[in-house]
């Protein structure tokens, strides 16, 4: 998954969760931030950021902020729409029989419905951008929506589907994601309930560049109840 164009800048500030002030070509520019999470460990005054200019008509901002360099040197893609795009690319490379994005299941939408042989799979995708000491954490802010998605996967498992919660790690070298219980303890509880119910949790490792990234493989947690995908 690569962006068509990319521009380097210096992060200045983030007045709210939707916009940031960035220095581009020695000018202060208001840009759209493609992630409504906190990203406070990443977007620090003076850090390098990379932006893309989609060129969509009627936009209030010219640029989207999509990538940043953390103070420890780690380049992180923070585009919240990118994990699903990268996952679709990755699934297409696996030779699955059928892939339907944004699949209607009951009264909800699940990121992917997949058929692989006799297996019918429902997959929800989460992007991980929070890192500490070489470990990824999710979420970086409380997410009732994330808990709802886990509950949907548990129901899908009860209905006979293979249910998968996939974390796309939007940075290099990180192979594990843990629930961020300090930020949202209820999410950790839902995570454990999903494992007990037989929902598979996988961590998708990635190769990240300033202008995009791709999923390169998958890892399992040290938790013995977390499984690798079978395809």
TrEMBL record:
It holds the Pfam family SfsA. Gene3D superfamilies: 2.40.50.580, 3.40.1350.60. GO terms for molecular function: DNA binding. Residues 12-75 form the SfsA N-terminal OB domain. Residues 82-210 form the Sugar fermentation stimulation protein C-terminal domain. HAMAP family: SfsA (MF_00095). Belongs to the SfsA family. This is Sugar fermentation stimulation protein homolog. The gene is sfsA.
């Amino acid at each position: 998954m690569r962006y068509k164009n990319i521009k380097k800048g210096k992060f200045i500030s983030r007045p709210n969760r939707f916009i940031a002030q960035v220095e581009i070509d020695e000018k202060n520019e208001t840009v759209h931030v493609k992630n409504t999470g906190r990203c406070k460990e990443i977007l620090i005054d003076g850090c390098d950021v990379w932006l893309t200019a989609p060129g969509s008509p009627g936009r209030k901002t010219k640029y989207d902020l999509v990538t940043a360099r953390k103070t420890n040197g780690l380049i992180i893609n923070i585009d919240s729409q990118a994990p699903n795009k990268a996952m679709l690319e990755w699934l297409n490379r696996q030779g699955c029989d059928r892939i339907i994005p944004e699949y209607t299941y009951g009264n909800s939408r699940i990121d992917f419905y997949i058929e692989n042989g006799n297996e019918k799979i429902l997959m929800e995708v989460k992007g991980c951008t929070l890192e500490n000491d070489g470990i990824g954490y999710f979420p970086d802010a409380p997410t009732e929506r994330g808990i709802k998605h886990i509950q949907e996967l548990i129901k899908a498992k009860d209905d006979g589907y293979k249910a998968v919660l996939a974390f796309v790690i939007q940075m290099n070298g990180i192979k594990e994601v843990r629930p961020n219980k300090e930020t949202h303890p209820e999410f950790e509880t839902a995570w454990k309930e999903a494992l007990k119910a037989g929902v598979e949790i996988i961590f998708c490792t990635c190769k990240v560049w300033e202008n995009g990234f791709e999923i390169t493989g998958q890892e399992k947690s040290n938790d013995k109840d977390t499984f690798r995908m079978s395809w």
